[in-house]
């Protein structure tokens, strides 16, 4: 079996994809502006993420579970996303996503790109409708960091062989712990602390950054 050379883990909303999935759900629920305002404050580190998530999810109560199919039609992969994942796979890497968004759409997006690891929140559905609650543990900044470490351990990698990419405050712990931590078109609080930055909306630029830092891909 070929040796695994590295692990890249990235955020989903405003990183792997251009949009914020929960904001789109909010628009479908008629609470778009209210949810978007909470999202912005949470991503800038002004609110506790778990509390902010629960507040936003509560505003989704009553939406039919068919809303996820509608949501997927409004989501677009960030430029370079397919190239990034494909190139890493071709070079013996594994790729994971950790999202404060929702497994119901994130898992499908990950499958479309052949992503190896997925962690996201699960929305509770009863009788075909969203209840306004999350089931299971919420994907917080601590869970994102723990996922990066867990997957690296499973692959027999040390943290120096990992890359983490994200844009929000809840991505900072994994960005700071990874061998290469990248702020991707990120909020000011993230740019101020991340070791590396990409300030263009093209994920493929991470490939050149990895080559430059590691001397290889």
From TrEMBL:
Signal peptide segment: none
Pfam families: HAD (PF12710)
GO molecular function: L-phosphoserine phosphatase activity; magnesium ion binding
Metal-binding found in the keyword field: yes
Active site residues per record: 11 (nucleophile), 13 (proton donor)
Keywords, sorted A to Z: Amino-acid biosynthesis, Hydrolase, Magnesium, Metal-binding, Serine biosynthesis
Name of the protein this chain belongs to: phosphoserine phosphatase
Taxonomic placement: Bacteria, Bacillati, Bacillota, Bacilli, Lactobacillales
């Amino acid at each position: 079996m070929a040796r695994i050379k590295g692990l890249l883990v990235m955020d989903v909303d405003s990183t792997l994809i251009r949009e914020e999935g929960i904001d789109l759900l909010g628009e479908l629920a008629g609470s778009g502006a209210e949810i978007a305002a909470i999202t912005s404050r949470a991503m800038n580190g002004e609110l506790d993420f778990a509390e902010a998530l629960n507040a936003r999810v509560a505003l989704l109560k009553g939406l039919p579970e068919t809303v996820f199919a509608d949501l997927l039609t409004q989501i677009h992969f960030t430029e370079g996303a397919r190239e990034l994942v494909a190139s890493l796979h071709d070079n013996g890497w594994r790729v994971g996503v950790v999202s404060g968004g929702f497994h119901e759409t994130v898992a499908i997006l990950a499958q479309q790109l052949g992503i190896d690891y997925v962690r996201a929140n699960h929305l509770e559905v009863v009788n075909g409708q969203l209840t306004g609650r999350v089931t299971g543990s919420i994907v917080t900044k601590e869970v994102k960091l723990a996922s990066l470490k867990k997957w690296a351990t499973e692959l027999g990698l040390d943290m120096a062989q990992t890359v983490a990419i994200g844009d929000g405050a809840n991505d900072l712990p994994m960005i700071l712990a990874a061998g290469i931590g990248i702020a991707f078109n990120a909020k000011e609080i993230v740019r101020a602390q991340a070791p590396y930055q990409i300030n263009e909306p093209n994920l493929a630029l991470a490939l050149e950054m990895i080559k430059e830092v590691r001397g290889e891909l």
